[in-house]
Amino acid sequence: MIGAMEKTDAADDIVRTAYSARSREYIDLFGSMTSTHPSDRALVGSWAQTLSGPVLDAGCGPGQWTDFLTGCGSAAAGIDLVPEFVRRARTQYPHLSFAHGNFETLDAADESLGGVLAWYSLIHHRPRDVRIPLTEFARAIRPGGGLLVGFFEGPAVEPFDHAATTAYRWPTADFERELVVAGFEVIETHTRTSGEQRPHGAIVARRRAADFARPSAGGLQYTREAEEDETSESPADEAGNVLRRRELG
């Protein structure tokens, strides 16, 4: 089960309010895998096959990608800032774990995750703040674990008028640099532009091995915990035990 230590700020409030107001419309338009691009499904599916261990769908929305990851064999769980999305996900996929909260302060042990999917869930982060969740992902992902980020690609880091609230385009090279600084090695990049209203980008990255403590989003130092004996848990049990759910109201 999963959870997060809620860190409410003005930016979170803006995003939460914007998506809550249009949650029904969003779920109708984008709440199933039939609305996703075939190349996106192929990319996420192939990435999932490379992972070992629990996977977090960070910014899971109504939960369709969490369910997709589970269908690919991953021990997946989801977290989202928007309560309407979390309620829908829990109703639609009662066999999976979902929590309400942000993913800048995850309630997950150091190096406990096999991977994180951040599929267009960082697009509303201000450029100066995007390193906060990336560093938190690096803390929670085990060395060699995977991160897959989807975003809107553009010639410069710049805001644009998204249907929900202000979002940001990123040149792929600029986002790569943010990932490297946060503790990742970039494995491959993808772009999709043909027939699209906006160019799309995706980056597959791997958590670098490191023996030093890194600062958290709040400036605290994390240290590596002692390894525990492995158990023969099922994938669903493993995801539930690594990421403990904390109800946030």
UniProtKB/TrEMBL annotation:
Chain segments annotated as transmembrane: none
Chain residue ranges for the region called Disordered: 214-249
Keyword annotations from UniProtKB, A to Z: Methyltransferase, Transferase
Pfam family, one: Methyltransf_25
Transferase among keywords: yes
GO biological process, one term: methylation
One Gene Ontology MF term: methyltransferase activity
Domain Methyltransferase: 55-145
SUPFAM superfamilies, A to Z: S-adenosyl-L-methionine-dependent methyltransferases
Gene3D superfamilies: Vaccinia Virus protein VP39 (3.40.50.150)
Origin: domain of life: Bacteria
Compositional bias of kind Acidic residues: 226-236
PANTHER family (UniProt xref): METHYLTRANSFERASE, METHYLTRANSFERASE DOMAIN-CONTAINING PROTEIN
Protein name (Swiss-Prot/TrEMBL): Methyltransferase domain-containing protein
